[in-house]
């Protein structure tokens, strides 16, 4: 896959407000937040979209979600709750083609989404 802005953030080539990191996952605040807390969890090993993920990525995908939940709980959102979202391609609203989990918290979310 071609490189993206998130690859550059993972390699520390461009700045980001990094809030969480493990061996395989990096999380940083979204530049265009849609909630009081809006953090993106990205695998350091890039996968373009959920379509490209396969069985070999199952553990990594699980780690992304667990990282988002861990961070949300540490930030005190366990009881009130929060939302995790993975957008895929045009109709999903994906604009950066390095798979990522959005964590949105700090306000009541609506359903269905727009
Ligand atoms: P998506 O639409 O699901 O591909 O989400 C991409 C998100 O990435 C979008 O909410 C805005 C955010 N974003 C785009 N460019 C940058 C950037 O350079 N830095 C940060 N922190 N976030 C970015």
UniProtKB/TrEMBL annotation:
The active site is at 100 (tele-amp-histidine intermediate). Residues 5-114 form the HIT domain. One of its GO terms (molecular function) is catalytic activity. A motif (Histidine triad motif) lies at residues 98-102. InterPro entries: Histidine_triad_CS, Histidine_triad_HIT, HIT-like, HIT-like_sf. PANTHER family: HISTIDINE TRIAD HIT PROTEIN (PTHR23089). This is Histidine triad nucleotide-binding protein. It comes from Dyella psychrodurans.
